[in-house]
Amino acid sequence: MKLNEKKLERFRRDGVIVRTRSRFDDSFYQQGYILAWSPKWLLLKLVSDDILANGYSAELVSTLKSIKRARNGEFVRKALELRSQSWPHEDEVGRIKLTSKRGVIESALEFFPLVSVHPLRTAPDILFIGREPSFSDGEMDWREISIQGEMDDGLRWHRMKPITRIDFGGLYEQALWDVWKSKNAPG
């Protein structure tokens, strides 16, 4: 997909809620505010279906099928305002490095304890959540956290190529982190 930068800037400036769709799963969409973009990446402030601030998502532009104004955007925007919803570290997230997958992951982990990576090309229904990555030759090793909030002692290996979306600062990542911290608190 080729980005229409004038349209994206207008959406960003006017606080328009957009919906994105992936080429790999037409039934899945994300909605949120455009925060930033580069030739390779689109960075959104996500809004959940429950109309809650739900962190951030960096999506590879080449994997997007569409970016459109959300039909219910004005309603969603007003509901967020009435609920006093805000996104953590919003100013700092504007400094996410939208240069490469590694850049996005490393800079997101400067502000948030966990990052989700989505290999939509090969497994649209799967995501991996972790921290403390190391990178080499198109691969990443990191510590993963389970759906029970348990952190792996060892490292898990992933190829970088299939990763098309990177999420951070969301409600699910925060819930996992909170559970892990509660289980590992001193005393």
Which structural traits does this protein have?
187 residues, alpha+beta, 10 strands, 34% strand
Describe the structure concisely.
The protein has 187 residues and is of the alpha+beta class. The protein is built from 5 helices and 10 strands.
What report would you give on this structure?
It is a single chain. The protein has 187 residues and is an alpha+beta fold. The protein contains 5 helices and 10 strands. It has a 10-stranded antiparallel β-sheet. Strand 2 (29-37) and strand 3 (41-47) form a beta hairpin. The longest helix is centred in the C-terminal third of the chain and has 13 residues, at 171-183. The protein starts with a helix and ends with a helix.
Count up the helices.
Answer: 5
Please give the radius of gyration in angstroms. 16 Å
How much strand? 25-35%
Name the structural class. Answer: alpha+beta
- Mean of residue pLDDT? 92
Distance between the termini: 52 Å
Name the helicity range: 10-25%
The tally of strands reads 10
The major pleated sheet works out as: 10 strands, antiparallel
The ordered string of helix (H) and strand (E) elements is HEEEEEHHHEEEEEH
Strand order of the largest sheet: 5-1-2-3-4-10-6-7-8-9
Which overall shape is indicated by the principal axes computed on the Cα atoms? Answer: globular
Low-confidence stretches: none
Architecture blueprint of SSEs:
Layout: H1 5-14, E1 17-22, E2 29-37, E3 41-47, E4 53-60, E5 64-69, H2 73-82, H3 90-93, H4 101-108, E6 115-118, E7 128-136, E8 139-144, E9 156-159, E10 165-168, H5 171-183
Antiparallel strand pairs: 1-2, 1-5, 2-3, 3-4, 4-10, 6-7, 6-10, 7-8, 8-9
